Amino acid sequence: MASQEYYDILGVSKDASQEEIKRAYRKLAHSYHPDKSTGDAEKFKKINSAYQVLSNPEKRAQYDRFGSTFEGSSGAQGAGGFDFSGFDFGGFSGARQAGGGFGGFEDMFGDFFGGGFSGSREDRGRDIQIDIEMNFTDTTKEFPTKVFVERRVLCDVCFGSGGEKGSKEITCSTCGGSGKVRQRVRTILGTVEQIAVCDSCKGKGKKYEKKCSHCGGDGRIRTKEEISLTIPAGIDNGQTISLSGKGDMGDGGASAGNLYVTVHIRPDKRFTRQGLDIISQESITLSQALLGDSIQVETVEGFVKMKIPAGTKSGEIFRIKQKGMPDIQGRSRGHHLVKIVIDIPSRLSSEQKRLAKHLRELGL
Ligand SMILES: [Zn+2]
Ligand SMILES: [Zn+2]
Questions:
Q1: Where in the chain are the domains?
Q2: How far apart are alpha carbons 271 and 335 in whole angstroms?
Q3: Buried b (16+ CB within 10 A) or exposed e, 43-58
Q4: How far, in Å, is the centroid of ligand 2 from the Cα of 184?
Q5: What is the average per-residue pLDDT within 142-165?
Q6: If you compute the radius of gyration of the chain from its CA atoms, what whole number of angstroms results?
Q7: Is the dihedral of CA 11, 13, 15, 17 positive or negative?
Q8: Which ligand neighbours the alpha carbon of 196 most closely?
């Protein structure tokens, strides 16, 4: 499932150095910053997502391996929204001082009012977010699963052209064939005229006389698709997996958006998770606590024998090494922690009562 997409977004090769990635990012972020006339919030967001993954060696390795990354629900990859705090604004001034690709404030100002042609607008497809539920015990190993996603894909009748078979191409009447239209855009300093891509023909200048009856001329159709994916071992509640290119196909043949799968883990009666450790509770009898014993403890890998030392106190925690949750990066593993509860019976037999009294006499 390894993917190339983030590399394509930044326009770098798969073996690009951190320095190359940073340079490509700065250049693109500068062009597509939403505050600018050449800005494109959607594209800016993608550039940022790609950079956040590829600039982080760990995330990059994970992406190279799985073609996806795993983030907490509050992370920048979370489907809920885009976290601007992760954006490296400092990079701008840094690049300027270093004599980088652009000339600072005047340059940005110039671009802002230049009102130039906004170029090839890429209407990247919409991202799709879905939720899945998993059992706790399935999260300790790689979990292959399938999801059904309603997404827009290429129309299989017109193959994206939007024209009915045999229909003639005609000049677009909206833009007169230029593919561009004049548009009034409001900026912080008033309204300026800008040239934008014609919506009617998507910048092609030509249209089909008759629209494809299968997709209504859109070039895309809605379909319900089964997508296979592997949830990495160690996934935590609320984490999101991103599958690039599995969102809606873009307008006019533009690339597809991403699919974000947020994992919700059903609570388990036996186990709770704390970081990479798994915690369970075991009840022992008073005599086991006083004299010690060996008990069977259920872990996510089955039952394990554990020694209870003599003199164990209620609430004491014992550790079974390496039976906890695997780290999602696959580097380490947590432990299984057993919390001991001494089971004090609410009723005693006469013999038990006699012995308890005897213990009292002995100072226990
Ligand atoms: Zn079609
Ligand atoms: Zn047009």
A1: 5-153+222-266, 272-361
A2: 12
A3: bbbbbbbbbbbbeeee
A4: 17
A5: 93
A6: 30
A7: negative
A8: 2
Residue 2 has a pLDDT of 53
What are the backbone dihedrals phi and psi of residue 110, each rounded to the nearest 5 degrees, phi first? -60, -45
Cα–Cα distances in angstroms (integers) from residue 42 to residues 61, 81, 244, 320, in the given order: 25, 11, 15, 48
**CATH architecture of the domain formed by 272-361:** Sandwich (2.60)
Of the ligands numbered here, which is closest to the C-alpha atom of 205? 2
In a 3-state reduction of DSSP, which class is residue 63? helix
| Nearest residue to 143 (alpha-carbon basis) of 242, 233, 236, 265 | 233
Query: Bridge-partner residues for 211, per DSSP?
Result: 163
For the segment 19-66, what is each residue's pLDDT rounded down to a tens digit?
A: 899 888 888 888 887 777 777 777 888 888 888 888 888 778 777 877
As a CATH number, domain 5-153+222-266 is: 1.10.287.110
Rounded distance from Cα 206 to ligand 2 centre (Å): 7
